[in-house]
Amino acid sequence: MKKELSEFKKFIARGNVIDLAVGVIIGGAFSSIVTSLVNNILTPILGLVLGGVDFSNLLITFRDTKIEYGAFIQSIIDFLIIAICIFIIIKFINKITHLKKKEEENVKESPKKSNEVLLLEEIRDLLKEKNDNQ
User: Fold this and answer.
1) Residue-range domain boundaries for the chain
2) pLDDT of amino acid 111
């Protein structure tokens, strides 16, 4: 039992598991924000554009069965909006990451010259100047 507990502690302490847990928590919080955006802002606007249609109330009654296709349409709209929001956020994060990598590459590409190299360049320039004057 002690060995399993030790292995479990090692498993939890690994970065990937902690990153995953943080991602799930943030995803849950983000989901409520997107749901609010869809329900309180975008769906009413879409209803105005489509002439006041409320998708969630659309249904077909067949005998004693209600087929609520409007709720299905609303779920599709919710999914598309969530997918677009996630796409925009990931694109923004990738752009920031790309800019940071580019800055790091620029710093790496222009290494400082050593004192020896600077001295040799100065000697070269002086010799060139001396040869040009002769």
Assistant:
1) 1-53, 55-134
2) 67
